[in-house]
Amino acid sequence: MSRSYRDLEVYKISLDLFFRTHEFSLKLPKYETYELGSQVRRSSDSINSNIVEGYGRKDYKKDFLKFLAFSRASHDETTNHLFKISKLYPNLKSEADELVKEYESLGKRLYSFHQYVRKSWRV
């Protein structure tokens, strides 16, 4: 078992993607910075934050699973926002698509980690 949420691979990857997504969102037109830009920043942050909050409740397996499910839902929301950005702003499409690919990889890891906690987590 990990000694800290900082040891979790899903945490490390989601934090890196949050920083990259945040920076990417600032490339949107000014008027979009507080609309779609804000939404993608918040959902990306939520992936990471729910991993941390869930880990803080790791002694209560059902709570941990609930927060991992929230993290996975925020993951889906983030990829959806990035898809919208790639369609609305062709100049950002390649970067948005690359982020989506990396989020898809994270999504697989989140699913696997969720399954691991569900089946094998011991306090």
Report on the architecture of this protein.
The protein has 123 residues and is mainly α. It has one domain (7-120): 23S rRNA-intervening sequence (de novo design (two linked rop proteins)), CATH 1.20.1440.60. The chain is 80% helix and 0% strand. The protein contains five helices and no strands. It has helices spanning 9-25, 30-33, 36-56, 61-88, 93-120. Helix 1 runs antiparallel to helix 5 and helix 4 packs antiparallel against helix 5. The model has no long low-confidence stretch (mean pLDDT 96).
Radius of gyration (Å):
15 Å
- The number of helical elements comes to 5
CATH fold topology: de novo design (two linked rop proteins)
H/E element string? HHHHH
CATH homology superfamily name: 23S rRNA-intervening sequence
- List low-pLDDT spans: none
Overall 3D form: elongated
Largest sheet, strands/sense/barrel? none
What CATH first level would be assigned? Answer: Mainly Alpha
**Total domain modules:** 1
Query: What is the subunit organization of this protein?
Result: single chain
Strand content: under 5%
Question: How confident overall, as mean pLDDT?
Answer: 96
Q: Please give the CATH architecture.
A: Up-down Bundle
How many strand segments? 0
Derived structural class:
mainly alpha
Termini separation comes to: 9 Å
Helix content: over 70%
